[in-house]
Amino acid sequence: MTTVLFVVFGGSALASALLAVTRKNPVASAIWLVGMFFGLAGVYVVLEAYFVAAVQVLVYAGAIMVLFLFVIMLLDLRSKQLDLEASPRMPILGVCAAVLFVVVSGMALMDAHDAGIFPDAAERATLVLDGSPEAIGADLFGRWLLAFEVTSLLLLGGILGAVILTKRRLT
Amino acid sequence: MFSLAFQLPEGLTPNLELLLPEFIVAGTALGAILPELILPAGRRAAATAWTCFAGLVCAFIVVVAMGPSAELALAVKDGDLLVSGLRMDAFSVFCRALITGGGALLVLISMAFTNRLDRGHGEFYAILLFSLLGVMLVSGVSDLLSLFVCLELVTIMAYVLAAFRRNDLRSTEAGLKYLVVGAVSTALLLLGIGLIYGWTGSLSLDAISAKVWASAAEGAVPPGLLLLGTALLFCGLFFKVGGVPFHVWIPDVYQGAPSPVTAFLVTASKSAGVILLLRMAQALFVRPEIMDSTVHNPLAQQWVLILGVVACITLLFGVLGAMPQRGIKRMLAYSSIGHAGYLLMGLAAIAAEGGRGAASGQYGTEALLYYLMAYFVTSIVAFGVIIVVGAASNRVEGGAHGDRAYEGLWSRSPFLAVALCLALLSLAGVPPMSGFFAKFLILRATIDKGLYALAFIGAGAVVVSLYFYLLWIKSMYFKAPPPGAPSGADFKIPASTRVVLWAGMAAMVIMGVWMPPFYDWAHQAAASLTSLAGR
Q1: Do B224 and A111 touch (CB under 8 A)?
Q2: What is the tens place of the pLDDT at every residue in B425-457?
Q3: N or C, which end of chain A has less CB nearby within 10 Å?
C-alpha cells in the first residue's frame, strides 16, 4: 500500500515538475508547480511526516505560490519577451544530461539497495518515526538551534536585500 | 502539554562565549543600518563604514585572543563544544581571524566606493557583514545541515551584493547570472547532502567519516551512492571556489559586480568554499587514528583522480583564459579560476594521502591555509587599487576597468602602480612575494604525495601566468598615458585605502621573506583540523 501511494504521489510530483519546466506560459508553469507541491506533500504523508506535509501545503502551495502568481501577473510578460535566444541544441543537451543523471543516480540507488544499506521491512518496523510538531519543535530549538538562528539572520538579510534591490529611487 | 526540554547532545555544554566574535559581527551588521536613519546625509557613509570596521576589528581581537592556543584545542578535545553543529577548533579560529581581519580591510577599501553612493550605505555594509558572518560560521561547521544553512547565508547575501548597483546593466546581469548558477549548484549540493545522508544515516561529519572508514576497512568498493553524493556536494562547493565546470559565472560576475563586491567574492566568498572543501576532505578522505597503513580508503583513491583532473582543467582554463583579457577585473577573474586550480591541487594531495591510509592530510591542509592567507592579502591590495582607479577613470577609452585605464599608471600615480605591481607579482608567484611561498607549499604537498604530473602542470602554469601578469605590469610602466586619463590629484585615494595598501604591501613582502610565523599559524590550524577529524 505504502509503495503504491509513494509511486502515485512521487510520480505525480515528477510529472508536474516536468510540465512546470516545459510550459511556455509562466502562469501554467506556476500552476503545475502547485501540483508538484501537492505531490510532495503526499510523499511526506506516506513518510508519516504529517506536520511537514501540512506546512508544505500551507506555506509552499499556499503562500509562496500566491506570491509567484502575483509577481508573474504584475510583470505581465508577453510570451515574445520570454523567447530567449538559446541554441537549438540546448534542449537536446539538457535531455541528454537529465537522462545521464537519472541513469547514474538510479544505478547508485540500486547498488546501495543491493548492498543492504537501506533498512529492510523488519528494521523499519523498529524505527520510531516522530513527525509531530512537538518533536520537530524540540529538535529545531535543541539540536538545530544554531541552524535555526542562522536562518533567521538569512531571512533578515534577505529582507534588506529585497529592499535595496527594489527601492524606487536609487542612484 | 509537553515539556520543551532544551536538549543538547550528550556530554556537551553550551559554550556561547566561543561564539562571541559571531555575536559581535551580527550586532554590528544590525547596528550598521542605524547611521543611515539618524545622521545627516553627508556623514552617513563614513559613520556606517567606520562602525563596521570597528565591529570587525573587535571580532578579530576576540578571535585572536582565543587562540590558536593549546588550551582551546584541549577544551575542544574534552567535548566542550557549542550547540550542535559548530566546532571551535584552532582551524576555525584561524579561519575566523582571517575573515574578520580580511573583512576589516575589505570595509576600508570599500569606503572609496560607498563614499560615492548617495544612499544604501547601511544596507551595503549590513549585507556585507551578514555574508562575512556566514563565512565565519562556515569555518566551524561539523554537520551537513549547518553547512548548508551557513553557506546559503554567504551566497544569498552575495547575490544581492553583486546586483547592488541595480541601475547599472552589468551589475544587474552579474547578480542574475550569479543567482541562476548559484541556485543550480545549491540544488546539486542539497541533493548530494540527501544522498550522503541516505547512505550514512547521519548528518554529522564525524559519523560520516566513521562510516566511510568502516566501509573502507571491510575492503568494499566505494558505494556508488556515496560517490554520487560526495560528487554532488563537491559540485556545490566547486561553485564557490570556481572550479571547472562551475566556473562559468566568474568572469561576468566579477566584471559586473561593484569592485568591492568583487573583492569580497575573490576573498571571503572563495574562502568559504575552500574551508568547507577542507572540512569535507578531512571527513571523507583521511582519518589519522587509523594507524594501519594497509587500510585504503577507496573513496579517497577515486577522488584523487577526479580532483586531479578538475584541478588541471581549472588551472589551464584560468591561466589560458586570462591571457586575452583586456579588462583588469576580467583578467583577475580568470586568474582567480587559475588560483582555484592550485587550491584543488592541494585538495588532491589530501585525497592522495588518504588513499594510502595512516594519514592526516597535514601538508595539503596547511598549504591551502597559507595559500588562502596570501591570496586574501594580495587580492585586497589589487582591488584597493582597482576601486580607486576605476572611480577616477570614467572617461578613459575602454571603460573604467579596461586596460587603457592602467596604461602609464606609473607616471600618473607611482603609489598605485607600485601597489598593483606587487599584487600582480604576488599573484603570479614571484619570489619574494607571499604568493611564491603559497604556491611552493602546494607543489610540495603534491610532490610529496607522488602526484608528479599535477605538480608539473602547476609549475608550468606559473610560468605561463607570468606572461600575462607581466604584460599588465609592462603596460603600467612603459606605455604613455592615454588621453583623458586621470593623473596625480585626480586619483582620490582615501586615507583608509592608503593604509590598507601600505599594510598589504608590507604583509605581502613579509609573508614572502620571513614566513615562519605565518607558516606556523597555518601549520597549527591545520594540525588541529587533522588531529581532531573523526573525533
Answers
A1: yes
A2: 999 999 889 999 999 999 999 998 888 999 999
A3: N
Q: Which residue, among B353, B183, B86, has the nearest Cα to A148 in the 3D structure?
A: B86
CA end-to-end span of chain B, whole Å?
Answer: 38
- Most B CBs within 10 A among A93, A148, A160, A166, hence the mutation to make, goes to A160
Tally the domains of chain A: 1
Q: How many CB atoms lie within 10 A of CB B59?
A: 30
Among B402, B102, B61, CA closest to B264:
B102
pLDDT, position A88: 78
Q: Is residue A117 a part of any domain in this protein?
A: no
**Which residues form the domain of A19?**
1-77
Percent of chain B having pLDDT more than 90? 54
Supply B229's cell numbers. Answer: 553524493
pLDDT in tens, B118-170: 778 888 999 999 999 999 999 888 889 999 999 999 999 999 999 998 888 88
Query: Is A34 part of any domain?
Result: yes
**Chain B nearest CA to A4, separation (Å):** 21
A30: which 3 cell numbers?
Answer: 506556476
| Alpha-carbon distances, residue B68 vs B65, B93, B99, B214, B282 (angstroms) | 8, 6, 15, 32, 19
DSSP assignment string, B354-376: HHHSS---HHHHHHHHHHHHHHH
Which grid cell sits at B336? 582567480
Tell me the domain boundaries of chain B: 13-529
Do the beta carbons of residue B338 and residue B311 sit within 8 Å?
no
The string of DSSP codes covering A49-92 is -HHHHHHIIIIIIIIIHHHHHHHHHHHT--GGGG-----THHHH
Give the range with max mean pLDDT: A143-147, B96-100, B280-284: B96-100
Q: Note whether B310 and B382 are within 8 A (CB).
A: no
Neighbour tally for A158: CB within 10 Å = 17
Task: Report the alpha-carbon distance of residue B219 to residue A96 in Å, rounded.
Answer: 34
pLDDT in tens, B371-390: 999 999 999 999 999 999 98
Q: Looking up cell 508536474, which residue turns up?
A: A16
The H-or-E segment that residue B29 falls in is helix B20-31
CB A146 within 8 A of CB B85: yes
For position A9, which CATH number holds?
1.20.120.1200
Could you tell me which of B28, B32, B83 has the C-alpha nearest to residue B58?
B28
Structural domain contains residue A49: yes
Residue B304 near residue B364, CB atoms below 8 Å: no
- Upper half-sphere CA count for residue B171 (Cβ side, 13 Å): 17
Is the separation of the CB atoms in B471 and B386 below 8 Å?
Answer: no
Q: In chain B, how long is the greatest CA-to-CA distance?
A: 80
| Rounded Cα gap, residues B481 and B488, in angstroms | 12
Which B residues, 371 through 410, put their C-beta within 8 Å of a C-beta on chain A? none
Instruction: Give the pLDDT of residue B6.
Output: 44
The number of CA neighbours under 13 Å toward the Cβ of A53 is 16
Take residue B191 and report the three cell numbers written for it. 541533493
CB of B303 within 8 A of CB of B318? no
pTM of the model: 0.92
Chain B positions in Cβ-Cβ contact with residue A154 (cut-off 8 Å): 130, 149, 152-153, 156
A137 — contact with chain B (CB < 8 Å)?
yes
Look at residues A19, A69, A23, A66 and name the one whose alpha carbon lies nearest to residue A39.
A19
Over its C-alpha atoms, chain A yields an Rg (Å, rounded) of 21
Contact B63, B100 (CB under 8 A): yes
- Tell me how far apart the alpha carbons of residues B468 and A142 are, in angstroms, rounded to a whole number: 53
